[in-house]
User: Fold this.
Amino acid sequence: DAGVIQSPRHEVTEMGQEVTLRCKPISGHDYLFWYRQTMMRGLELLIYFNNNVPIDDSGMPEDRFSAKMPNASFSTLKIQPSEPRDSAVYFCASSPGTGRGGTEAFFGQGTRLTVV
Amino acid sequence: DQQVKQNSPSLSVQEGRISILNCDYTNSMFDYFLWYKKYPAEGPTFLISISSIKDKNEDGRFTVFLNKSAKHLSLHIVPSQPGDSAVYFCAATRRNYGGSQGNLIFGKGTKLSVKP
Assistant:
């Protein structure tokens, strides 16, 4: 398996533009997580899905952020409109879930977003 | 409020010596703890974990200790090697709460530098 695949690896956009980050989880994993890493706040959970259903989105900072998981092999995180303070590294992770290989989450390489 | 705290942003150790990374948590409902390692420009990778029913788990050079009464865990690396230089994240979750996966709550990380 290629692991969790995120695209793009880097994104530079202008303030006000829409940004879409993409993630392909590991096949067979029931859980998908979106994290954001900043210097100030470290790694913070934005939202997670179980079997394509959003379970907890309390970490989503504002209504400008939205996430979808239309099927088991794809998820998107959208920011509209983007702002400079959204600049961060966004990680997607997937996990097989309790009882099947443990609780460990496997992370993608991240998308470094810069909003200018 | 931070539920998982890593109070040392950085640690420098000589090659061959022991590295001890510390982590404190506040939520007594956490029942599973993990350590992740992160190199620059990569996603975090799982290193070792421990269930709350144990107080020690060992895997090669890596040992994690859990002190539930103090809500404290530590990661010991013996002997430390230059390749261990990375950022180490402590994470916690409620794996068995309500039958759900829960999510990983991360500390802000400790940057370990192992000098030759």
